[in-house]
Specification:
The protein has five helices and four strands; from the N terminus they run H-H-E-H-E-H-E-H-E. By secondary structure, the protein is α+β, with helices and mostly antiparallel strands.
Amino acid sequence: MNEIFHRTSIRRFTGQEVETEKIELLMRAAMAAPSAANQQPWEFVIVTNKAVLEQLSKTTPYASCLANAPLGIVVLIRKECRIPEYAEIDCSIACENIWLEADSLGLGCVWLGVAPVKERVAAVDAVLRTPSVFETFALLAVGYPAEERRQQDRFDPKRIHYLR
């Protein structure tokens, strides 16, 4: 899977909209993620409204790229999931799947951390008027890349330990 070795954080996007078919593929990839006890604690808010993207761009110190992204994805956790202590892990895997699928579709993506910082969660919730049954987890900015970046080679054999 070359996307693992190609994927980078893209924060600059062209003005081209992301096609509905590609958004569905991103969501299919997200929901294909494994989860603890198959609880699937995720919910997703697809944001294409420019005014809302602008508001979301001010919710964290690192989210400014959402103002110029054609697509924002807000990842929520259902509070009433079966094993809540694993919900953030499950949603992290879903975010990674979105990122990898975005790369495979020729899109750029960046994961913008929200949880566990309470002020960031509250800021996103205020913009979206998030129902109390959900907890905001992350934001992703997605679009056609207006920049090209090479992934760093992070392989470090010194971090591998064998027990034989």
